[in-house]
Specification:
With 367 residues, this protein is of the alpha/beta class. Helix content is 37%, strand content 21%. The chain has a single domain, classed as Peroxisomal Thiolase, Chain A, domain 1, CATH 3.40.47.10.
Length: 367
């Protein structure tokens, strides 16, 4: 049975910064109030020409570059997102086309902020089963499009961004060691985005009622998160045959500094072992864990052979944790240059659209 190693990583962050001082001009809040309750001081907001797929493609290409893997070698693409481009088609299919992953299957995964853990686990299981060799897992969000900027309880929290991992099959022991995934739908109303689905399709009424904005019971989510972060970490470690003292790094979902602090106390681990960047990006949902992992590697914290725990929670309610032995860069036999495939992908996409148009034109003439 092959092992599933994380061999590539990348992130994409929009340039526009929205600070707490900026928010204080929009709603009744201030920097001290926001920092005290969340630990957040700024977040990134996607430009009008940036979308969930745009950020996903940029993060995915960087991950492929780190892994030195051509998009044509991918077997599977999973995009975890709480803010997909459309209900359908899947954002993953748009990414597949734009990066030139000609033979990859692609689908979206919706498990809210836990989605990246779920998606990474599913990709690892597919690799370990022998059904695929190479997978690209992306967490990408433009949650700012669903924020009510007049609601100070939610508008202070969320930011945009994307992060990605490449997973590859290897006979070398290590990689993804264990994972747990859980859900509790009885708490579904605690964190919701009701509008736009089959139950509440867009109408004047749903717009007037604010159903197309994120709605959250902050206290309920806080209680839930502080309960499950530590327990999920211990559960995943036990499955991997490890203890907390074996862990080099914990990379948690970046939702709230106080939640991370509580998890550290529960696990009796120093806060220094937790990778934290919520102060600069806010809650980027599915993108928060891979973004934090990329930054930890770039700063020299995350090294080959390190035991790392990814743990998160989200709407659903969902939560989960994944334990991995970090692989680090694999020596390149030859340069793959995955970014060059984007031009070929565009040409192929235009050609296929032209063929479909021509087929439709000819079929109408026959009729």
């Amino acid at each position: 049975m092959p092992y599933a190693h994380i061999t590539g990583w990348g992130m994409s962050i929009p340039e526009p910064v929205l600070t707490n001082e900026d928010l204080a001009k929009m709603v009744d809040t201030n920097d001290e109030w926001i920092r005290d309750r969340t630990g957040i001081r700024e977040r990134r907001i996607a430009r009008e020409d940036q979308f969930t797929s745009t950020l996903a493609v940029e993060a995915g290409i960087k991950a492929l570059q780190a892994a030195n893997l051509a998009p044509t070698e991918l077997d599977l693409i999973i995009v975890a997102s709480s803010s997909p481009e459309y209900i359908f088609p899947a954002t993953a299919c748009i990414v597949q086309d734009q990066i030139g992953a000609a033979k990859a299957g692609a689908f979206d995964l919706l498990a809210a902020c836990s989605g990246f853990i779920y998606a990474t686990n599913m990709a690892a299981q597919s690799i370990r089963s022998g059904s695929i060799k190479n997978a690209l897992v992306i967490g990408s969000e433009t949650l700012s499009r669903f924020v009510n900027w007049k609601d100070r309880s939610t508008c202070i929290l969320f930011g945009d961004g994307a992060g990605a991992f490449v997973l590859q099959a290897s006979e070398r022991p290590g990689g993804v060691l264990s994972a747990v995934m859980h859900s509790d739908g009885s708490g579904a109303e605690s964190l919701t985005l009701l509008g736009g689905g089959a139950r509440y399709p867009a109408t004047e009424t749903t717009l007037a009622e604010g159903k197309h904005y994120i709605q959250m019971d902050g206290k309920a989510v806080f209680r839930f998160a502080t309960r499950v972060m530590g327990s999920a970490t211990k559960e995943a470690l036990a499955l991997a045959g490890l203890k907390t003292e074996d862990v080099d790094w914990i990379i948690p979902h970046q939702a709230n500094f106080r939640i991370i602090e509580t998890a550290a106390k529960y696990l009796k681990m120093p806060l220094e072992k937790f990778v934290i960047n919520v102060d600069r990006y806010g809650n980027t949902s599915t993108a928060s864990i891979p973004i934090a992992a990329v930054e930890a590697f770039e700063k020299g914290k995350l090294k080959s052979g390190d035991k790392v725990v990814f743990v998160g929670f989200g709407a659903g309610l969902t939560w989960g944790a994944l334990v991995a032995e970090w692989t680090g860069p694999i020596p390149a036999k030859k340069q793959a240059h995955p970014e060059q495939y984007r031009l070929f992908a565009r040409l192929r996409s235009w050609a296929r659209r032209a063929i479909r148009f021509l087929e439709g034109f000819l079929s109408r003439r026959e009729l």
